[in-house]
Design a protein that fits this description.
Strand content: 35-45%
Number of domains: 1
CATH superfamily: Nucleoside Triphosphate Pyrophosphohydrolase
Number of strands: 9
Helix content: 10-25%
Radius of gyration: 15 Å
Order of helices and strands: EEHEEEEHEEEHH
Shape: globular
Number of helices: 4
CATH topology: Nucleoside Triphosphate Pyrophosphohydrolase
CATH architecture: Alpha-Beta Complex
Mean pLDDT: 93
Largest sheet: 7 strands, mixed
Low-confidence stretches: none
CATH class: Alpha Beta
Structural class: alpha+beta
Length: 180
């Protein structure tokens, strides 16, 4: 299914080109673009999101709490706020988002013919509510659960018990260092 989301094309150095492009075209042609990731900690643990079984990439894999594309002319923190509301029903306070860094990753997904070239701006957020009763976006999120940091670290290193979306080692090292 084609996506009609409009995002911004980037060059390989991470500079926005002020050129709108349809997300599915960027994926088909391997055009770099930007996304956000939010790692959310609650009093119950760190939220992991299980990607929907209908996703084109990594269906049913466990991943970061919230992830999504940055719309054309949208600021990364605004995208983070929007995606948290859409995917989990959480109202993020923008001034409480902690930026951890930006990572460039390239992944080819042969089954869906998607070439992901993404600059991921990664955030940490401390959520004071409970995950019980969160409103999950079924098109994006199959399930969520919280995990203790040590269990998350073990899973990242071994993919057991959670089959995790693979990110660069440096990405996970930074995230883990910030969550400890």
């Amino acid at each position: 299914m084609a996506s009609y989301e409009i995002i911004e094309a980037y060059n390989t150095k991470g500079m926005g080109l002020k050129r709108p492009i349809l997300k599915h075209i960027a994926h088909k042609r391997g055009i770099p673009h930007s996304t956000i990731h939010i790692w959310i900690r609650t009093k119950e643990g760190i939220i992991l999101q299980q990607r929907s079984k209908n996703k084109d990439t990594h269906p049913l894999f466990w991943d970061v709490s919230v992830a999504g594309h940055i719309d054309y002319n949208e600021a990364p923190k605004i995208a983070a706020q929007r995606e948290a509301k859409e995917e989990l029903g959480i109202d993020i306070q923008i001034d409480e988002l902690i930026e951890l860094g930006t990572f460039y990753e390239v992944h080819y997904h042969p089954k869906s013919c998607i070439m992901d070239r993404e600059f991921k701006t990664v955030y940490y957020y401390n959520y004071h509510g409970s995950i019980k009763g969160l409103n999950l976006q079924k098109e994006e999120v199959e399930a969520i659960q919280t995990v203790e940091l040590n269990d998350l670290i073990k899973s990242i290193k071994s993919n057991v018990p959670y089959k995790m979306v693979n990110h660069k080692r440096e990405y996970f090292e930074l995230v883990i260092s910030q969550l400890t």
